[in-house]
Design a protein that fits this description.
Strands 1, 2, 3, 4 and 5 form a 5-stranded antiparallel β-sheet that branches. The chain has helices at residues 3-53, 65-75, 79-87, and strands at residues 100-103, 110-114, 125-131, 136-139, 143-144. A hairpin with a 4-residue loop joins strand 3 and strand 4 (136-139). By secondary structure, it is of the alpha+beta class. It starts with a helix and ends in a 13-residue tail after the last strand. The protein contains 3 helices and 5 strands; from the N terminus they run H-H-H-E-E-E-E-E. It has 2 domains: 1-52; 64-144, no CATH class.
């Protein structure tokens, strides 16, 4: 095979590989844009619903850290305790998922975030968690970090 024929075959192979990679990236980008558009739409609906349900109700100021810690010690699982509990299932949250839970002042007791595929993507996801003294009692669906969490379901008694 001559050099010109080899170069043509090499260029063809590179072109096919490049087109394949572009096709994959475009597919992921389109799926991600649909996900983000859907979450944005749902977030706007949740905010509008909350606004319509309590239009004149002011937001309560966040509690001080001291009172939060006191309340947590009295009747709630701590954020660190929740992280430990969630990490007990390594198939759900592998060691490199960078799971972190922190207190929130609306709807949920804690908001936890993690990276489902840290070796492939830096996208973080989040979910809300309601807890009691020793376990989680309700978990929201997972949404991309920065979008509004859906409100908790009313507790059945």
């Amino acid at each position: 095979m001559d050099a010109e024929g080899f170069n043509s075959a090499y260029k063809l192979a590179l072109t096919i590989a490049l087109l394949y990679v572009l096709w994959m990236v475009v597919g992921y980008a389109v799926n991600f844009s649909y996900l983000m558009a859907n979450q944005t739409h749902e977030s706007k609906e949740i905010i509008a619903r909350q606004h319509n349900n309590a239009p004149n109700q002011p937001l309560l100021p966040p509690r001080s850290n001291e009172s939060n810690q006191l309340i947590t010690r009295q009747r709630k699982l701590t954020a660190a305790g929740l992280e430990t509990l969630l990490k007990q299932n390594p198939r759900q949250f592998p060691a490199n998922a960078q799971l972190h839970c922190g207190p929130t002042f609306r709807d949920w007791d804690y908001v936890c975030s993690y990276m489902p595929t840290p070796l492939q993507s830096t996208t973080r996801l989040q979910f809300g968690v309601m807890v009691d003294a020793s376990r989680y009692v309700q978990v929201s669906r997972v949404v991309p970090m920065g979008t509004v969490l859906p409100p908790p379901q009313p507790q059945r008694r």
